[in-house]
């Protein structure tokens, strides 16, 4: 049995040191329950500027919007920076594996990413969100196929899919094919429908799903934060909805709305085997003779030094349901 925890809390927006203090607080609280894994929401370190328009309109951006962009940039972190080193120290200090959403910066671009950090090991997995949604496309770049891993841990095979990436059927299949058992879903989707999606994924993939969303009030934002959703301190900008789901789609904890919260549950990986008795979508319930998925897991840097890369065509008689390109 493994005890897992999900954090539902708010970033201190545009104040990364204060947010890091909240990370320590919630990791400590999770560890006090005996949890061996704790999952934080999407964009927890770096924040999510819900309700800002960033001065954007079709065909132009305002000077004030560029100032907001700069402020958000200054809240973001580098994957090799001091904030992530602090997360690694917390994992070791409290003896807990931490899955945490970050807003990462590289060159002049931010990325929505998630790091999995283990005691004594540091970061053992890293994923950049493949497809930002809506206005997020002005704020974040797109990840590529090089950061879609699952990772073996003493508690099971863990993988992370961020927010609306969970609605990409082919990405889900790729994660199932890699043998994911503990599916971490940091999100910022606070609708009641989200929990339905999490139950479907758990049931479809026969996996445990740990979904963490923020609970944010206007008071969590700076005084000069010009929010289109309202500026009363108690205006709810994000309402939570975090949950933990079993491999048969049963709700083990949550969803919780309207408050910050720590959700916990005991999970048993044998439940995955029991659940796959009648449905294994990458095994006995698949049809590789009819359907195949090709996955490009190469990094796609702007500059490549060396001879051109080539990819050999797949053999006509290839029967594997998923073919991963080198």
Summarize the structure.
This protein is α/β, with parallel strands linked by helices and 326 residues long.
Topology:
Elements: E1 2-8, H1 16-32, E2 37-39, E3 56-57, E4 60-61, H2 63-75, H3 82-94, E5 97-106, E6 109-118, E7 122-128, H4 136-139, E8 150-153, E9 156-160, H5 169-177, E10 182-187, H6 192-205, E11 208-213, E12 215-217, E13 236-245, E14 251-257, E15 261-267, H7 270-275, E16 293-296, E17 322-325
Parallel strand pairs: 1-2, 2-5, 9-10, 10-11, 16-17
Antiparallel strand pairs: 1-15, 3-4, 5-6, 6-7, 8-9, 11-13, 12-13, 13-14
Structural write-up:
This protein has 326 residues and is an alpha/beta fold. The chain is built from seven helices and 17 strands. The chain has helices spanning 16-32, 63-75, 82-94, 136-139, 169-177, 192-205, 270-275, and strands spanning 2-8, 37-39, 56-57, 60-61, 97-106, 109-118, 122-128, 150-153, 156-160, 182-187, 208-213, 215-217, 236-245, 251-257, 261-267, 293-296, 322-325. The strands form four sheets. Strands 8, 9, 10, 11, 12, 13 and 14 form a seven-stranded mixed β-sheet that branches. It has a six-stranded mixed β-sheet with strand order 7-6-5-2-1-15. A two-stranded antiparallel sheet has the order 3-4. Strand 10 (182-187), helix 6 and strand 11 (208-213) form a beta-alpha-beta unit. Helix 1 runs parallel beside helix 3. The radius of gyration is 20 Å and the shape is globular. The two termini are 36 Å apart. The model has no long low-confidence stretch (mean pLDDT 92).
């Amino acid at each position: 049995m493994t005890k897992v925890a999900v954090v539902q809390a708010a970033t201190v927006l545009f104040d990364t040191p204060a947010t890091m203090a909240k990370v320590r607080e919630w990791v400590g609280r999770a560890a006090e329950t005996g949890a061996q894994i704790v999952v934080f929401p999407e964009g927890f370190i770096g924040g999510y500027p819900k309700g800002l328009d960033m001065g954007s309109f079709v065909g132009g951006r305002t000077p004030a919007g560029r100032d907001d962009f700069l402020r958000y940039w200054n809240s973001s972190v580098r994957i090799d920076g001091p904030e992530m080193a602090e997360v690694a120290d917390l994992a070791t200090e409290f003896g807990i594996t931490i899955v945490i959403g970050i807003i990462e910066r590289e060159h002049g671009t931010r990325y929505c990413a998630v790091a999995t950090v283990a005691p004594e090991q540091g970061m053992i997995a890293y994923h950049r969100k493949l497809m930002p949604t809506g206005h997020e496309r002005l704020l974040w770049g797109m990840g590529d196929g090089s950061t879609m891993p699952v990772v073996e841990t003493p508690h099971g095979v863990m993988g992370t899919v961020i927010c609306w990436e969970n609605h990409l059927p082919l990405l889900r299949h790729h994660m199932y094919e890699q043998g994911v058992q503990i599916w971490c879903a940091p999100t910022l989707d606070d609708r009641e429908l989200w929990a339905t999606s999490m139950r479907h994924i758990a049931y479809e993939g026969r996996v445990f799903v740990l979904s963490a969303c923020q609970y944010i009030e206007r008071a969590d934002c700076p005084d000069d934060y010009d929010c289109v959703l309202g500026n009363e301190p108690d205006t709810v900008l994000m309402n939570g909805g975090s949950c933990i789901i079993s491999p048969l789609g049963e709700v083990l904890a949550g969803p919780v709305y309207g408050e910050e919260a720590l959700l916990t549950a005991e999970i048993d990986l044998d439940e995955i085997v029991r659940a796959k008795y009648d449905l294994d979508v990458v095994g006995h319930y698949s049809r590789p003779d009819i359907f195949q998925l090709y996955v490009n897991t190469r990094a796609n840097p702007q500059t490549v030094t060396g001879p051109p890369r080539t990819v050999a065509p797949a053999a006509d008689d290839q029967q594997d349901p998923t073919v991963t390109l080198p």
